[in-house]
Amino acid sequence: xxxxxxxxxxxxxxxxxxxxxxxxxxxxxxxxxxxxxxxxxxxxxxxxxxxxxxxxxxxxxxxxxxxxxxxxxxxxxxxxxxxxxxxxxxxxxxxxxxxxxxxxxxxxxxxxxxxxxxxxxxxxxxxxxxxxxxxxxxxxxxxxxxxxxxxxxxxxxxxxxxxxxxxxxxxxxxxxxxxxxxxxxxxxxxxxxxxxxxxxxxxxxxxxxxxxxxxxxxxxxxxxxxxxxxxxxxxxxxxxxxxxxxxxxxxxxxxxxxxxxxxxxxxxxxxxxxxxxxxxxxxxxxxxxxxxxxxxxxxxxxxxxxxxxxx
Length: 311
Prior knowledge:
single chain, two-stranded antiparallel sheet
């Protein structure tokens, strides 16, 4: 972690973590006293853009140097997610009506009404798509660690496999189809807590002290099946963070995940997990800030320092 005081209540900046302090900061930025709105403010446009940029960067890759982020992770333009070579909806409806395909006709009408209701796709959040491709961020999104800082530690210490080989570069950006495996012994959720271990040791000692008072177990099969299950001990207040993105295929029995595709956006929905509105003013102002302050020159020396990109 670059900032030891990352969860300070005074700044209240949400991070990629399941910490209780981070949950309080997230509540502060969502419903509490630190909600940022620019509808009625005395700040200049420059100050509004800088504030929005600071909020976005605090959550999306605060461990990445700002100059490195602008040079290697910021896209030149926002992607176009509109469908290409699509038949006009009026022609499709007329053809289905003439052919008597009532079910397809109703489905097309519902789809058109839903797209009209949701409006355009929130592509502003896709400026953080390259950050989501990082192997440490992907491990955190797959719920293998309670923070992105722990995910970086696992990668650097050699507890992560990329396509079956040990990988120690936390800056690597994954390609579609890459499989990431994590050592189960290094996942804190799969380890028994100290309290459970003490209770089990105490019960074992009591059973050994009074062998005459032991009674035969009634449900032997249930106890054996319970012992075969992998322990899964979540930290307190972890439920708000338990979700899996659409671009990840996770297998918890094998502690592995596949990066299926790059994240995208659809009308009314963005696959980039963010604590802010994907099409809100914070995301828009942050993109306005970076669109005017992007480094454009990449020399040969700079290209040699580019983080690994598997495309």
